[in-house]
């Protein structure tokens, strides 16, 4: 009788391990936040197609919306949304996400001042809020921690009607999920990693 129960126990353990081994692993998504709805507990991102923190590629459309984890322990710092996808000073262009068209807009800018190799603790940026939009002077000043750039530029008047957050880079976030659109774990990379936008 003991031998029968021993074999039954082994068989049960093997079945359990088989089921556990066959369970589906989750997936990870990473991108820049373009919308955060605190009340609905959802976040909308533009996926980083390269998954390269120093040279991201935010060109994936359509935007992806995820519900946030129901367990507060699986939720990192709340994300900040922004519209800036890329600042290209060589081409004198800025690429933004346009919520109205759910697509991207490339805007030609006129660079008025550019400071390079500016660290986060530099007096030019430390304790200051960016983007700094001056509607009287028709300028926008942006700081990119990843590029270590402090840039002031002008642009066509029509774009000054857009919200200031348009010129800001949303937080980079990492989402673990098993079911499409439902995050099980949410990490705000911008507020936990050493690099910033």
Summary, kept brief:
By secondary structure, the protein is mostly beta strands. The protein is built from two helices and twelve strands; from the N terminus they run αββββββββββββα.
Keywords:
2 domains; 5-stranded antiparallel sheet; OB fold (Dihydrolipoamide Acetyltransferase, E2P); 4-stranded antiparallel sheet; about 200 residues; 2 helices
Give a verbal description of the structure.
The chain folds into 2 domains: about 80 residues, OB fold (Dihydrolipoamide Acetyltransferase, E2P) (Beta Barrel); about 80 residues, no CATH class. Helices cover about 15% and strands about 40% of the residues. The protein contains 2 helices and 12 strands; from the N terminus they run αββββββββββββα. A 5-stranded antiparallel β-sheet has the order 3-2-1-11-12. The protein has a 4-stranded antiparallel β-sheet with strand order 7-10-9-8, with no helix packed on it. A 3-stranded antiparallel β-sheet has the order 4-5-6, with no helix packed on it. The relative contact order is 0.20.
Helix/strand order: HEEEEEEEEEEEEH
Helical fraction equals 10-25%
Please state the overall shape, judged from the principal axes of the Cα atoms: globular
Question: What is the β-strand count?
Answer: 12
CA(first)-CA(last) distance = 67 Å
User: Stretches where pLDDT falls below 50 for ≥5 residues?
Assistant: 4-9, 11-23
Q: Tally the helices: what do you get?
A: 2
- Alpha-beta classification: mainly beta
Q: What profile does the largest beta sheet have?
A: 5 strands, antiparallel
The tally of domains stands at 2
Summed over residues and divided by their number, the pLDDT gives a mean of 87
Strand fraction? 35-45%
How are the strands of the biggest sheet laid out side by side? 3-2-1-11-12
Radius of gyration: 23 Å
């Amino acid at each position: 009788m003991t031998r029968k129960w021993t074999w039954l126990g082994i068989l049960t353990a093997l079945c359990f391990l088989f089921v556990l081994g066959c369970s589906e692993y989750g997936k990870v998504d990473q991108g820049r936040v373009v919308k955060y709805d605190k009340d609905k507990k959802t976040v909308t991102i533009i996926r980083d197609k390269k998954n390269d923190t120093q040279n991201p590629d935010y060109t994936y459309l359509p935007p992806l919306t995820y519900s946030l984890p129901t367990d507060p322990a699986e939720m990192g710092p709340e994300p900040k949304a922004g519209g800036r996808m890329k600042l290209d000073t060589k081409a004198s262009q800025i690429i933004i996400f346009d919520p109205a068209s759910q697509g991207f807009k490339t805007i030609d800018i006129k660079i008025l001042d550019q400071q390079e190799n500016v660290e986060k603790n530099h007096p030019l940026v430390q304790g200051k809020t960016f983007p700094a939009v001056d509607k009287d002077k028709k300028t926008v000043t942006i700081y990119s921690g990843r590029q270590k750039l402090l840039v002031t530029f002008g642009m066509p008047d029509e774009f000054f009607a857009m919200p200031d957050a348009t010129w800001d880079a949303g937080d980079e976030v990492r989402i673990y999920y098993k079911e499409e659109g439902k995050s099980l774990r949410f990490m705000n990379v911008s507020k936990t990693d050493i690099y910033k936008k």
